[in-house]
UniProtKB/TrEMBL annotation:
Keywords attached to this entry: Amino-acid biosynthesis, Cytoplasm, One-carbon metabolism, Pyridoxal phosphate, Transferase
A GO term for molecular function: glycine hydroxymethyltransferase activity
Reported function: Catalyzes the reversible interconversion of serine and glycine with tetrahydrofolate (THF) serving as the one-carbon carrier. This reaction serves as the major source of one-carbon groups required for the biosynthesis of purines, thymidylate, methionine, and other important biomolecules. Also exhibits THF-independent aldolase activity toward beta-hydroxyamino acids, producing glycine and aldehydes, via a retro-aldol mechanism.
Oligomeric and partner information: Homodimer.
Site positions (Plays an important role in substrate specificity): H240
Primary localisation category: cytoplasm
Swiss-Prot/TrEMBL cofactor(s): pyridoxal 5'-phosphate
Protein name as it appears in the record: Serine hydroxymethyltransferase
InterPro entries according to UniProt: PyrdxlP-dep_Trfase, PyrdxlP-dep_Trfase_major, PyrdxlP-dep_Trfase_small, Ser_HO-MeTrfase, Ser_HO-MeTrfase-like, SHMT-like_dom
Family according to the record: Belongs to the SHMT family.
Catalytic reactions of this protein: (6R)-5,10-methylene-5,6,7,8-tetrahydrofolate + glycine + H2O = (6S)-5,6,7,8-tetrahydrofolate + L-serine
EC number of this enzyme: 2.1.2.1
Domain Serine hydroxymethyltransferase-like: 20-404
Length: 448
């Protein structure tokens, strides 16, 4: 082979970065600025963490050049020998990590995975029982602004005032509406989900149970949260929230994989295999599948177990600190990585999110049970600990951050639902404090 040919992944990525800087400095600068932004801001976003550099590298592999419709060893294209090995590795690792019998690693996101499963197992007009968006559910679980709430007759179950899923209501609604599918799993929920109870209810009414564990995938993988793999007929998740993986989706099935789908002449394995390709998706992003394989590999290590342990410890410390500062933690405590705060008075979720961002603290405004404000305003904040755990924050760091949040929000003077005053001197002072915390607790995996 010609000596000048680049023959390995690392050299290709280096050449690419050099070329980007030389030929497209505008884009290169934005990308560099983002790395820097992540170092000097504190992310308290429940759905984020920093992708492991090894996983990032896998996502930038030359596999991206291969078109590979189909499944390993059953492709519609030639030239797939390495892609087949990578996809088979990702499937094997996903099954081992979660104790599943079937895995589909091709969905581009968890929402896509959810729609793929819905469209495979339900007919338009069938009834779907999912968690109400205001009570912590996800858009794709039946919200009226999405396909899931329009192609299907979506019914929402709620949480109690303590922020706990009202299983009696779930049972009542299931018996009343006889849904074809019940979806459990949440985007803004701080308690343990009783997957076995959901299955019991689903079986009582002959419904299919789908669990979306995007938010708690790491807790499930490390056995800090009960697993839905055998309780639900189908489990979905994204790979970037707690797995520190690439943006992508995953579909799994456990003990029901080779059972017949009720009312269909197919097993779950067959229906799930068909629902991604060719039903809804074309060629997979095989470079992202490589990154998923890397993420599943990392998620099987003791280091990952430590990381998820920190996610839990930090969540407990933050919840206590917010309560000490007089904030309402919905439900009073957390059992996972999420803390839901109901804000008092005129400080809306939108104002808090914006004011904190000005001071380099990133949070999400969020709807809360009993919400009276629109989605772009809201009365709550959703706090999560995936990114803070990568900074290996200790208890004193947690208290410093909560103290900062509290002092920032105390200085904010709301004008209306979205506008507010916060003087520029205070912003500068708060930013410096955040940067000091960021320096003291750097993102460990992003250090030399
Ligand atoms: N599902 C949304 C969230 O929880 O933030 C986006 O991933």
């Amino acid at each position: 082979m010609d000596e000048r040919l680049i023959k390995n992944q690392a050299d290709l990525i280096n050449k690419g970065m050099n070329e980007l800087r030389e030929y497209d400095p505008e884009l290169a600068k934005i990308l560099d600025d983002e790395v820097e932004r992540q170092h000097r801001t504190l992310s308290l976003v429940a759905s984020c963490c920093a992708v492991k550099p090894q996983t990032l590298a896998a996502s930038a592999s030359a596999l991206v050049n291969v078109t590979a419709e189909g499944a390993p060893r059953k492709r519609y294209h030639a030239g797939c020998q390495n892609v087949d090995l990578v996809e088979a590795l990702a499937i094997d690792r996903a099954c081992k990590l979660f104790g599943a019998k079937y895995a589909n690693v091709q969905p581009h996101s968890a929402s896509n995975a959810n729609y793929q499963v819905l469209s495979a197992l339900l007919k338009p007009g069938d009834t779907l029982l999912g968690m109400d968006l205001d009570h912590g559910g996800h858009l794709s679980h039946g919200s009226s602004v999405t396909l899931s709430g329009n192609y299907y007759k979506a019914i929402g179950y709620k949480t109690t005032p303590e922020g706990v899923i009202d299983y009696d209501e779930v049972r009542k609604l299931a018996h009343e509406y006889k849904p074809r599918m019940i979806i459990c799993g949440a985007s803004a929920y701080s308690r343990i989900i009783d997957f076995d109870k959901f299955r019991e209810i689903a079986d009582e009414v002959g419904a299919i149970l789908m669990a979306d564990i995007s938010h708690i995938s790491g807790l499930v993988a490390t056995k800090r949260h009960p697993s839905p793999i055998d309780a639900a007929h189908v489990t979905t998740m994204c790979t970037h929230k707690q797995l520190a993986g690439p943006r992508g989706g995953l579909i799994l099935s456990g003990r029901d994989a080779d059972e017949k789908v009720p009312g269909m002449d197919k097993t779950f394995r067959q229906a799930l295999q068909h629902c991604v390709f060719p039903w809804m998706q074309g060629a997979p992003a095989v470079n992202i599948i490589a990154a998923k394989a890397a993420a599943f590999g990392y998620a099987s290590t003791p280091q990952f177990d430590d990381y998820i342990g920190k996610i839990r410890d930090i969540a407990d410390s933050l919840a206590s600190a917010f309560k000490e500062k007089g904030y309402e933690v919905i439900g009073g405590f957390t059992r996972n990585h999420t803390i839901m705060l109901r804000l008092n008075g005129d400080i809306t979720g939108a104002i808090a999110e914006s004011a904190l961002e000005k001071c380099s603290i990133i949070v999400n405004k969020n709807r809360v049970p009993g919400e009276t404000r629109p989605s772009f305003v809201t009365s709550g904040l959703r706090i999560g600990t995936g990114s803070l755990a990568q900074r290996e924050l200790d208890e004193s760091g947690c208290y410093r951050i909560v103290d900062l949040v509290s002092r920032i929000l105390d200085r904010v003077k709301p004008i209306n639902n979205k506008e507010y005053e916060l003087d520029s001197n205070s912003i500068q002072t708060f930013r410096s404090e955040v940067e000091e915390i960021c320096r003291e607790y750097p993102i460990k995996s992003y250090m030399e």
